[in-house]
Amino acid sequence: MARGPSSPVFLERRSYRRRRMQDAQRLLPVLGMVLWMVPVLWPSGDETGHVSMSAAICYVFGVWCVLIGLSFVLWSGVQHGADDATDTASDPAGDP
């Protein structure tokens, strides 16, 4: 039995990258929660068994800043990919 022209097995590179960036955006809250729990695992800094509060606050603030930066980078990558997809999807001849 003869088969007609088959569709490509692989996705376009742009749409694949855009989907992976969207997946990474969805995982950022989980990554943030895991990273924010790290100070709980730090060894105690003094006899009372408490982690240095200033070090923990600096760490949490640093993680927060990094997460904001990552989310901006991923967002701009997804927006750039979406703009490219709409540009290539438009018909150059102008026919509907």
Written overview of the protein:
This protein is mainly α and 96 residues long. It has one domain (13-84). It is built from three helices and no strands. The mean pLDDT is 78. The chain crosses the membrane at residues 27-45, 51-75. Keywords: Membrane, Transmembrane, Transmembrane helix.
Residue ranges: pLDDT <50 for 5 or more in a row? none
Count of domain modules: 1
Helix proportion range = 55-70%
**Multimeric state of these chains?**
single chain
Radius of gyration: 23 Å
Secondary-structure-derived class: mainly alpha
Shape: elongated
First-last Cα distance = 36 Å
How many DSSP helices? Answer: 3
Mean pLDDT score, rounded? 78
The succession of helices and strands, N to C, reads: HHH
Count the E strands.
0
Give the DSSP E fraction (strand runs of 2 or more residues).
under 5%
Task: Outline the biggest β-sheet.
Answer: none
